[in-house]
Design brief:
The chain has 278 residues and is mostly helical. The protein has a domain at 34-91 and 144-277: MetI-like fold (Orthogonal Bundle), CATH 1.10.3720.10. The protein contains twelve helices and no strands. The chain has helices at residues 2-37, 45-52, 54-86, 90-101, 108-119, 124-133, 145-169, 173-181, 186-214, 218-223, 231-240, 245-277. It is globular.
């Protein structure tokens, strides 16, 4: 009886959340799915154009290229930051973790506009380069792929740092000490012990960043050029400019499928990580 009451209580507590999920996620998602196969009658025109359309293939290539670049940049910077944080005592680590989390405190729209000031032709970075080089150096970092990757990296970095740091903190330090006693150098310890044991965190961070990158809209719209359009921007184009809802919905569902696959892989990695550190 107690178990029955407990189950009933859980169901009552979850009911508002399930209702919100149904109204604000599942129903709109269902309408998008319906629009992708119905246009004055059942049709697979949108999916056929996704498979054969030159523009869509080009934008998909842009999306994959930019997402991979931003993820790799986040991985390199995130691993260095995570190693530095993992080597600190917990009390000293706390304020640095706050700084890592700072990007979450600001809207991505505000951050993207801020990057136009930092990366522009007369921005802070180019002013510094001009001052150092006496006016000889100037970098084009806005309205191109570099600006998009830098803006996305700023957003993605916390998603890379936190899982990698968790893997590093949970490593058994006696393995490092034993390797040092046996005469292993720092690089050998890192390549044979530290990095392999941190791979679950690396995989989790990479999958999270890839998933988030694939659906980016604001950053490429504000910091990129015409050659840097991503799938989310293409969906917006077909929705507002050409009013082709069927094609836009088909692209959205393809993007959803790719994201769902990455999320499934992320869940698998997290389960393996829990098993490893259990």
């Amino acid at each position: 009886m107690a178990h029955s009451m407990s189950t009933r209580t859980v169901m009552v507590l979850l009911a508002p959340l399930c209702l919100l999920l149904l109204v604000f996620f599942l129903l709109p998602l269902g309408r998008v799915g319906w629009a992708s196969i119905y246009d004055h009658g059942y049709t697979l025109r949108g999916y056929a154009e996704v498979v054969s359309g030159t523009l869509i293939h080009r934008v998909l290539g842009n999306t994959l290229h930019i997402s991979v670049l931003a993820t790799l940049t986040s991985l390199v910077l995130g691993y260095l930051i995570a190693m530095h944080l993992a080597g600190m005592p917990p009390r000293r680590r706390a304020p640095y973790l706050v700084m890592v989390m700072l990007p979450f405190w600001t809207s991505i729209l505000v951050k993207s506009y801020a990057f136009t000031i930092v990366l522009g032709n007369s921005g802070l970075v180019n002013q510094l380069l001009g001052w150092v080089s006496g006016g000889a150096w100037h970098a084009e970092m806005l309205f191109n792929r570099m600006g998009v990757v830098l803006g996305m990296t700023n957003y993605l970095l916390p998603f890379m740092v936190l899982p990698i740091m968790a893997s590093l903190v949970n490593q058994n330090r006696s393995l490092h000490l034993a390797a040092e006693i046996m005469g292993a150098g720092q690089w050998r310890i890192f390549s044979r012990i530290t990095f392999p044991l941190s791979l679950p965190g690396v995989c989790a961070g990479v999958l999270m960043c890839l998933t988030l990158s694939m659906g980016m809209y604001i950053t490429p719209a504000l910091l990129g050029g015409r050659q840097d359009m991503m799938l989310a921007n293409l969906i917006d184009f077909y929705t507002r400019q050409t009013l082709d809802w069927t094609l836009a919905s088909s692209i959205a569902f393809v993007l959803l499928g790719v994201s769902a696959l990455l999320i499934a892989m992320l869940i698998r990695v997290q389960r393996d990580q829990e098993t490893t550190f259990a």
